[in-house]
Design goal:
The protein is α/β, with parallel strands linked by helices. Helices cover 38% and strands 17% of the residues. It has helices at residues 15-20, 58-71, 98-109, 140-157, 171-181, 202-207, 228-240, 254-263, 274-285, 291-305, 315-323, and strands at 31-38, 44-46, 54-56, 75-81, 114-119, 132-134, 137-139, 161-164, 190-195, 244-248, 268-272, 309-312. α2 packs across α3, α4 (140-157) crosses α5 and α9 (274-285) runs antiparallel to α10. The model has no long low-confidence stretch (mean pLDDT 97). The protein binds ligand PBG.
Length: 329
């Protein structure tokens, strides 16, 4: 390929040609919308650090889900924020817990909506860590039993899929076993496999009221500097029965998404996390960037890197933009 025989600009001449040779296409069915659910009735609290996102009580969540179903976005991932927290996060597996109520409400109203649940203890523990504390650190193996119980209670309430985000070793296997023992062998697990200890989770921790009360998550979430370790994590989760593997966050980890895509034959999800969303919103509110174009460029880059599924707070806006492309693009 040499200039002037090859002129790349020939195929960029107009929109139709550009569309014909476009390599990556965002689709509405790529998206999963995260939703926060709190106890009570009639609540729709705007989240200051996540403009356009809210905490919903279960009844209001069902109303919001109408928009999701109408948009064509096929799935939501639920984060429960309970009123009562304790050392072992017992509200996480309570039959009448806030997440369980939300799952039942959503599945009753919209059986076709895929309801995924985040399985973790940090929203439910008074210390804000993702597992049971022993000698000042999160104890791996005693946390596994609870994660199995939480997953089972979500599935019994009607969840279509569970997504463990705690980063305990062996949790995918423990959850798979807990589900299978109760006859739920057909419920898939989407594992947060390569989940990094990231500063981009800041706004989420306000929304889920889940900031650790002491220390940090470095003893269980991954070091941002590591790539080979992500491959080992994904391998382990696949061995233990993960159906979908996830990389989180997305933007600073596009190389990891690509490596996971090319190393394994499993659907790959990427989490476009709260801080990534908040940065776009903040800059757009200041008119420093075109928010919609940046959003679509970011989502396209995550898909181009190899993600089949994108968990994103932008899901509804992105679905609208895909349905009605504005002329300025
Ligand atoms: C729970 C969990 C977190 C996120 C998803 N699940 C927070 C954390 O690990 O501290 C972050 C999502 C986001 O930032 O949007 N462990």
């Amino acid at each position: 390929m040499r200039f002037p025989e090859y002129r790349p600009r020939r195929l960029r001449k107009n929109d139709t040609l550009r569309k014909m040779v476009r390599e990556t296409q965002l689709e509405i069915s790529d998206f999963i919308l995260p939703l926060f659910v709190v106890e009570g009735k009639g609540i729709k609290n705007p989240l200051r650090s996540l403009p356009g996102q809210f905490q919903y009580s279960p009844d209001m969540l069902v109303k919001e889900a109408h928009e999701v179903v109408r948009s064509g976005v096929p799935a939501v991932i639920l984060f429960g924020v309970p009123l009562e927290k304790d050392a072992v996060g017992s509200q996480a597996y309570a039959k009448e817990g806030v997440t369980q109520q939300a799952i039942r409400g959503l599945k009753d109203a919209y059986p076709e909506l895929i309801v995924i649940t985040d399985v973790c203890l940090c929203e439910y523990t008074d210390h804000g860590h993702c597992g049971i504390i022993s000698h000042g650190d999160v104890d791996n193996d005693s946390t596994l039993d609870i994660l199995g119980k939480v997953s089972l209670s979500h599935v019994q309430a009607g969840a279509d899929m569970v997504a463990p985000s705690d980063m305990m070793d062996g949790r995918v296997g423990a959850i798979r076993e807990a589900l299978d023992e109760s006859g739920y062998e057909s419920i898939p697990i989407m594992a947060y496999s390569a989940k990094y200890c990231s500063a981009f989770y800041g706004p989420f921790r306000d929304a889920a009221q889940s900031a650790p009360q002491f220390g940090d998550r470095k003893s269980y979430q991954m070091d941002p500097a590591n790539s080979d370790e992500a491959i080992r994590e994904v391998e382990l989760d696949i061995d233990e029965g993960a159906d979908i593997v996830m990389v989180k966050p997305a933007l600073s980890y596009l190389d990891i998404i690509w490596r996971v895509r090319t190393s394994f034959n499993r659907p790959v999800a990427a989490y476009n996390v709260s801080g990534e969303y908040a940065m776009v919103k903040a800059a757009a509110q200041n008119n420093w960037i075109d928010g919609e174009r940046c959003m679509l460029e970011i989502l396209t880059s995550i898909k181009r890197a190899g993600a089949d599924l994108i968990i994103t707070y932008h899901a509804l806006e992105a679905a609208r933009a895909i349905l009605q492309p504005s002329r300025k693009r």
